[in-house]
Amino acid sequence: MSVDTARPAAPRPAGLDNRVVVDGTALSWRDLPELRLPAPVALLAHRARYALAAARHHAVHGTELLLTTAGRADSVLRAELSEAGFTVIDTGGADLPPSRPRAGEPGRLWLLTSGTTGRPKRVGHTLASLTTVRGRQPGRTWLCPYAPGSYAWWQVVTLSLTQPGQHLVVVEPEQLDDWPTLAATHGVDAASGTPTFWRRALHRDPAALARVPLRQLTLGGEPVDQTILDRLREVYPTTRISWIYASSEVGAAIVVHDGRAGFPVEWLDRPAPGRPTLGVRDGELVVTSPYHGVGLAGPIRTGDRVQVVDGRVLITGRLDSDEINVGGSKVSASAVRDVLTAHPQVAWARVGARRAPLLGHLVVAEVVPTGTVGPPDEAALARWCADRLPEYAVPRRIRLLPEIPVKETLKSDV
Amino acid sequence: MTELTRARIRDLMGQVLANQGKVLPDDDDADLREIGFRSLDFSELALRVEDETDEELNFDAAGLRRIATVGDVLDFLADLQRP
User: Fold this and answer.
1) Taking CB atoms and an 8 Å limit, are B46 and A357 in contact across chains?
2) Low-confidence ranges of chain A (pLDDT < 70)
3) How far is A337 from chain B (nearest CA, A)?
4) A386 vs B58: CB contact, 8 Å cut-off?
5) What is the ipTM for the molecules in this complex?
6) Pairs from A313-318 (Cβ < 8 Å, separation ≥ 24)
7) Would you call A391 and B40 a contact, using CB atoms and an 8 Å cutoff?
8) Which segments constitute the AMP-dependent synthetase/ligase domain (chain A) (predicted)?
9) Could B40 and A397 be called an inter-chain contact, meaning their C-beta atoms sit closer than 8 Å?
10) Is pLDDT of B83 > 50?
11) Domains and CATH numbers, chain A
């Protein structure tokens, strides 16, 4: 990669004059470094500045691009990309030429899946298929806490690149713990994050969070339960709170604004032109979407478990990890997690299985207390669960953690 | 491997019951059915022993057939730790 300080010659995206705050400095899209990138290229960005510059480069020149963070690309993935014809550019390290050079595919953008089902795999998109917000939006300053190149990152970035008045404040990984201060300083009034991201913010410093003047608050990337929606509503009584279901494979498929977990059962199997069709097959969410990644067509099994409760379709967790077999009785880990997080002194919980003699597995949990009063002890939490769950579903070991764990994906357990 | 004493296993058994609002009787002859100590509780107790000894326990239901009292549980888990 080379960096040219000259400004791009052919500025086409409509949002190029939008403000972009990166490394705490306010710029515009035009002020970002001008990169000279080969095609196809896999850019492994160490800093958001170069990831944004690469996104702008693609929007202007349309050359084939795969964008991700250096941390996600181990040596095996780098070799695979080289084999697939990419020049692998590490903005903080050594580059790798393509082992099988090929011509770039104009307009192609590649995303890496989050790797929840194994090794990351490439999903093909275009800037158009990633630009799911097309109608004119009210002017907003968006927080962008996501890792560069993820589906959620592209959602915020394409919005700012394509619509005037959609500004961007980027959170670097080292700023993640104190993002509310950064956001308040730069007038962020719209933010999107995972439930884990929001739980951490509520847990670390709810007063700092409340100082961010949000008019739009969005959750996605993990199951969204009623407790987190209610806790955010307490901090933001008049803000529009939405949750979104999206993935690299099916695109943005569900958006819900009514402040409730799940979506109305009436939305199932209801075809509408230009919109995804939602279905449930054997307890699994199935999506047929115009925003599918390239090569995907028809109904896509998402691997996400759903339950219909009181007229709402709840997306509760991954099918392959949600079910725990306790001596022949089936337990939904997400149902137990929801019971724990509903405890007033619990900020976050993770539930899983542990191998145990006699019964095969027992339910176990890790919990982060809110810290507002003395932390609940294991016995109190076990009794809370016993009042709300079958005996075999009650976590038998509950470990208290001091801080909510989070990965680069802003998720904690997938 | 850390070998737990019978007294320490009794403490852990007490914790399992205390989490359910129950009290472990002092009498080793107390009947497990009467104090409400069941297979889920036995598995949990095994996990607690594993956590303290850092060693995985292996046994099956057949080995538990003759276990009826608190003392039987303590003896069984104490014996299980011995090579």
Assistant:
1) yes
2) 1-11, 114-118, 372, 413-414
3) 18
4) no
5) 0.91
6) A313/A262, A313/A263, A313/A264, A313/A265, A313/A267, A313/A268, A313/A278, A313/A280, A314/A223, A314/A261, A314/A262, A315/A223, A315/A224, A315/A245, A315/A262, A315/A285, A316/A223, A317/A223, A318/A116, A318/A414
7) yes
8) 105-280
9) no
10) yes
11) 1-188 (3.40.50.12780), 320-400 (3.30.300.30)
CA A33 to chain centre: 26
Test A358 with B64 for CB contact under 8 angstroms. yes
Distance from CA of B29 to the nearest CA of A (A): 23
pLDDT of residue A414: 41
Pull the structure tokens for residue A40: 């196809």
pLDDT at A8: 45
Whether the Cβ atoms of residue B17 and residue B23 lie closer than 8 Å to each other: yes
Residues present in chain B in total = 83
Alpha carbon distance, N-terminus to C-terminus of chain B: 11
Instruction: Indicate the pairing of strand A166-170 with strand A19-22.
Output: parallel
Nearest CA in chain A to B14: A379
Tell whether A371 is within 8 A of chain B (Cβ). no
Which residue(s) pair with A45 in the sheet? Answer: A69
Instruction: Say whether B19 and A397 touch across the interface (CB within 8 A).
Output: no
Distance of CA A29 to the CA centre of its chain: 23
Using an 8 Å CB-CB cutoff, list chain A residues near B48. 397
Is the distance from CB of A238 to CB of A255 less than 8 angstroms? Answer: no
Q: pLDDT, tens digit, for every residue of B18-59?
A: 999 899 999 999 999 999 999 999 999 999 999 999 888 877
Domains of chain B: 6-80 (1.10.1200.10)
Which residues, in sequence order, are CB contacts of A9 under 8 Å at separation 6+? none
What pLDDT does residue A307 have?
92
